[in-house]
Amino acid sequence: MSDPADTAQARTAVQTAELQAVEERQTGFWLYLLSDAVIFSLLFATFGVMAGRTAGGPSAAGLFDLTHVFAETMLLLASSFTFGLASLAADDGRTTPAIAWLVITFVLGLGFVAMELTEFSGMIAEGAGPQRSGFLSAFFTLVGTHGLHVTAGLVWIAVMTGQIAWKGLTGPVLSRLQRLGLFWHFLDIVWIGVFTFVYLAGSL
Amino acid sequence: MNPRTSLHASGAGRLVTGLALALVLTLAAFLFVWVKPVTGGAGLSVLAGLAAVQMLVHLRYFLHMGWRTGKRDINLAVILAVVVICIMVGGTIWIMHNLDMRMMTGTG
Fold first, then answer.
1. How far is CA A200 from CA A121, B45, B108, in A?
2. In chain A, whose CA is at the least distance from the CA of B86?
3. H or E element: which one contains A39?
4. Overall average pLDDT of the B34-61 stretch
5. Region class of B100: left (phi > 0), else alpha (psi between -120 and 50), else beta
6. pLDDT score of A21 more than 60
7. Mutate: best of A42, A47, A200, partner B, most B CBs <10 A
8. For the segment A155-191, what is each residue's pLDDT rounded down to a tens digit?
9. End-to-end Cα distance, chain B
10. A176: nearest CA partner in chain B
């Protein structure tokens, strides 16, 4: 029996089920992001408590190079913007621009991680490593956890770029790309807290 | 047909607006620390205010793409997370500050 009305109805039912599955995954990913937000908040609280515990070692004032931090901030903000452009291109079905913007986002994110590693290794070489004081332990834990998240995001961006190239902009690929977008923009929001409460507040 | 198309009708314009606002707020925060018109608690309050506004800008202009306004379960989860964060962060700083005062130690 192949009544065209039945076929259309069945197709609509499948589309509705797919949309619902995408929505459920999105909701689940929001729950993960919110639990991650709780983790970061507690690392911020720990840093707030430990900020003055320098144990005679270096304190925040004079330790941080704000020009360096500003450049890191610009890299991450630019990468959030280019990811938004990649999402727009992907939603419009433009495969090549989507891949190009994702590659640019990856390069900007990689620049951020490279700058952070340079800062960390410079601090450790100066004797301002995580074992020096409570302040520095809290600093490396908070900023390092954010850096690890960005690194995980870079791996994910690389995987999604590959999926778009090989599978095309299919439903599941678009759905994953949306969740990666949530993750990447979320990390930029956490960084607002880091540059404000760690670097700027410490240099005030 | 595609619900995303209408959602992203002005997508690029929204992104550019978000980027411009974020740039202004970031520059304001860095300039504030460079000039240092106020320091101490008042200065920290200004920085915290700028950060809060910028976080809202990012949520509105960058995260809006996946955020269907009116999705009840997500909104409820966000409210729960905010409450949990306020209790744990506020409680931590309150208790540790109080202990610090009782120990009467200026430095660690």
1. 21, 12, 22
2. A41
3. helix A4-50
4. 92
5. alpha
6. yes
7. A200
8. 999 999 999 999 999 999 999 999 999 999 999 999 9
9. 63
10. B66
How far apart CA B98 and CA A38 sit, in angstroms, is 23
Residue A200 CA, distance from chain mean position: 21
Interface of A with B in 118-177 (CB under 8 A): 133-134
Cα A105 to the center of its chain, rounded Å:
11
Assess if CATH 3.40.50.2300 describes domain A31-203. Answer: no
Q: What is the Cα gyration radius of chain A?
A: 21
Which of B38, B45, B57, B58 would you mutate first to test chain A, the one with the most A CBs within 10 A?
Answer: B58
Alpha carbons B21 and B29: distance in angstroms, whole number: 12
Say yes or no: A201 contacts chain B, CB-CB below 8 A. yes
> What does each C-alpha distance from A168 to A88, A94, A100, A104, B61 come to in angstroms?
15, 10, 14, 19, 27
Give CA–CA dist B10/B91, Å, rounded.
Answer: 42
